[in-house]
Specification:
128 residues, alpha+beta, elongated
């Protein structure tokens, strides 16, 4: 069984408090928020009403976590956003953005639909 990590964060600010490890084991068991708050020392002492949790798929955003400078949960969208190191010429104070993994996936989808539209147009023009 593969269980992805859980990101615990403050509901009001999006500050990430703790990220559980992902687990791959035939004996892995899904835990609840209450289980985790009683087990992980990093979560003890927090009011459960002030924390929320974002469950990620197994291996989701592994590369984003590796290269990002920081990350948070957008309290409005409840989606994770990353701040990546600036490249030469970039704004030295980058803003949080959706994961690069998602951006690449969206671009691939857009490219596929663009290619399909171009093929359809070429087909229509060749039959005219």
């Amino acid at each position: 069984m593969k269980i992805g990590p859980k990101v615990y964060y403050r509901k009001t600010t999006g500050e990430v408090i703790y990220i559980t490890s992902q687990v791959e084991s035939p004996w892995a068991v899904e835990t609840t928020k209450e289980d985790d708050m009683g087990f992980y020392p990093q979560l003890k002492g927090y009011d459960p009403e002030q924390l929320d949790v974002l469950k990620l798929e197994f291996d989701k955003y592994t590369e984003d976590f590796r290269i990002a400078k920081s990350y948070w949960i957008n309290p409005e969208t409840k989606q994770i956003e990353f701040v990546y190191p600036p490249k030469d010429g970039d704004d030295p104070d980058p803003v949080p953005q959706k994961p690069l993994t998602d951006q690449v996936s969206e671009l691939k989808t857009l490219q596929d639909s663009t290619e399909a539209a171009m093929l359809a147009l070429m087909d229509v023009s060749s039959t005219s």
